[in-house]
């Protein structure tokens, strides 16, 4: 396999085939629309724009742009001009229409994307599981026999990409909402440093932690999507894996791995070492402090409650009870506790950055478990609620470390054929995005014989 060889169905390879005369944008859109209507992907879309998509994809000027008229999906929390922005809720279904596209959507369109539809999400983006009692939860495409959770909160975005309906799934990541579904569905999810992409036009969960980013089918597609969303060029490197020093934190992030995740992660580390990377286990004791730092509720609870307070008073009965309970936890945070949380986070970031000094990137399992069946966590009795919150905490545990760090991270598949998807998370502190992406591209190549035998 040549360096950075990719599966034939990623966006860049598809564009190369079209521009070489071996395919067409119209044919790709027909395939995408067929996929979007299939039993796998139909629940992933809350609304599709068939006629508009056909018109956009037929535009020769759009086909000449970087995304070539190929289809993308948009998470339901982004503004699309002329439409309300419900964010997966019933209480905002009749909200005033947005006056303009969110900047992230506008940048994708300006680069030639055809927007296929709005995608399913956890209500108000407040869960890593991906269920939503207001709409049918899309099942994870990785398992045709057992309906499993897609992960969240960008659930429909992940299914639209993994199920073949979109090449890019635009979403958001506050505690792992891009990387969790990417890991569980077996695709690529990149969370950039927050400040690099505009938050405007995306309904907020936590202004401190929210990040606008996307899921794709390969790392090189992730780089292209990031360059468009961030309006910047990634500084690429062809340095081989032996040029990189990688850390593996043992503190908490390796606790409680299920058998499939543990085996896939160890196999991935062995493959990276065989490819020449220096991989060193370290203690990262600062991770243990996150519980006490966020004991009063954390940023998501406090900041979401500030946004939702009036809406809860007026229409609280229309919320998903699980989401409402998490938002209302923020009602008890006092001003001095919020200010102390800001200070504690700043000090914590400094300690973690000091511990990671000398390492190019960090390796962890994206999440410690494979996707559980939807039936275990679907709304129901108290036992299902207990299972939901247990699974949610497990899914958020590793990726949320990066959000608190104000860092960047990518999840790439590392499972073998016949296994449920497992994600390898490659991460670092703020503004180390290009190094993380370059390491990920080399790692994807090194792992290709496992993930695509």
Structure description:
- It is built from 17 helices and 11 strands.
- The protein is an alpha/beta fold.
- Strands 1-3-2-4-6-5-10-11-9-7-8 form an 11-stranded mixed sheet, sandwiched between helices.
- Strand 7, helix 9 and strand 8 form a beta-alpha-beta unit.
- Helix 8 runs antiparallel to helix 17 and helix 11 packs across helix 12.
- The N terminus is likely disordered.
- InterPro entries: Amidase, Amidase_CS, Amidase_dom, AS_sf.
- GO terms for molecular function: catalytic activity.
Précis, in short:
The protein has 17 helices and eleven strands.
Structural class: alpha/beta
CATH architecture of the largest domain: Alpha-Beta Complex
In the CATH scheme, the class of the largest domain would be Alpha Beta
Helical content (DSSP H or I, runs of 4+): 25-40%
Beta-strand segment tally = 11
| Major sheet summary line | 11 strands, mixed
**Cα Rg:** 20 Å
**Number of H/I helices:** 17
What's the SSE pattern? HHEHHEHEHEHEEHEHEHHHHEHHHEEH
- The whole-number mean of residue pLDDT values reads 96
Query: Which percent band covers the strand fraction?
Result: 5-15%
**Number of discrete domains:** 2
Strand numbers in spatial order across the main sheet: 1-3-2-4-6-5-10-11-9-7-8
- Give unreliable regions as ranges: 1-6
- The N- and C-terminal alpha carbons lie at a distance of 11 Å
Indicate the CATH topology of the largest domain. Amidase signature (AS) enzymes
């Amino acid at each position: 396999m040549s360096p950075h060889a990719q599966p034939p169905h990623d966006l860049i390879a598809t564009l190369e085939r079209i521009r070489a005369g071996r395919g067409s944008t119209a044919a790709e859109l027909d395939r995408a629309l067929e996929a979007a209507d299939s039993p796998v992907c139909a629940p992933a879309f809350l609304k599709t724009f068939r006629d508009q998509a056909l018109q956009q994809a037929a535009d020769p000027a759009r086909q000449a742009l970087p995304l070539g008229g190929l289809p993308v999906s948009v998470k339901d929390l982004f503004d699309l001009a002329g439409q309300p922005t419900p964010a997966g809720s019933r209480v905002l279904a009749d909200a005033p229409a947005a006056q303009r596209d969110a900047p992230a959507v506008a940048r994708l369109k300006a680069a030639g994307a055809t927007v296929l539809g709005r995608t399913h999400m956890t209500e108000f983006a407040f869960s890593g599981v991906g269920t939503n009692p207001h709409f049918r939860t899309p099942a994870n495409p990785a398992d045709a026999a057992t309906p499993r959770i897609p992960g969240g909160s960008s659930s429909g975005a992940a299914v639209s990409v993994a199920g073949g309906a979109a090449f890019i799934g635009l979403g958001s990541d506050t505690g792992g909402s891009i990387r969790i579904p990417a890991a569980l569905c077996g695709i690529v999810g990149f969370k950039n440093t927050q400040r690099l992409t505009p938050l405007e036009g995306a309904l907020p969960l936590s202004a401190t932690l929210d990040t606008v980013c996307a899921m794709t089918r390969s790392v090189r597609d992730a780089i292209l999507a990031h360059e468009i969303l961030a309006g910047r060029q990634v500084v690429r490197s062809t340095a081989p894996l032996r040029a990189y020093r990688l850390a593996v934190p043992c503190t908490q992030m390796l606790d409680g791995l299920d058998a499939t995740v543990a085996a896939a992660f160890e196999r991935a580390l062995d493959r990276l070492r065989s490819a020449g990377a220096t991989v060193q286990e370290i203690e990262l004791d600062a991770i243990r402090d996150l519980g006490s730092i966020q004991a009063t509720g954390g940023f998501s609870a406090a900041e979401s409650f500030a946004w939702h307070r009036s809406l809860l008073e007026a229409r609280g009965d229309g919320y998903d009870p699980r989401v409402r309970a998490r938002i209302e936890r923020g009602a008890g945070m006092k001003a001095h506790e919020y200010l102390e949380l800001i200070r504690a986070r700043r000090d914590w970031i400094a300690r973690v950055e000091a511990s990671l000094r000398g390492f190019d990137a960090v390796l962890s399992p994206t999440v410690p478990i494979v996707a559980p069946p939807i039936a275990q966590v679907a709304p129901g009795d108290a036992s299902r609620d207990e299972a939901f919150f247990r699974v949610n905490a497990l899914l958020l545990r590793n990726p949320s470390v990066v959000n608190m760090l104000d860092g960047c991270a990518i999840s790439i598949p590392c499972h073998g054929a016949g296994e449920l998807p497992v994600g390898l998370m490659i991460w670092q502190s703020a503004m180390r995005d290009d190094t993380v992406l370059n390491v990920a591209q080399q790692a994807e190549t090194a792992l290709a014989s496992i993930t695509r035998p």
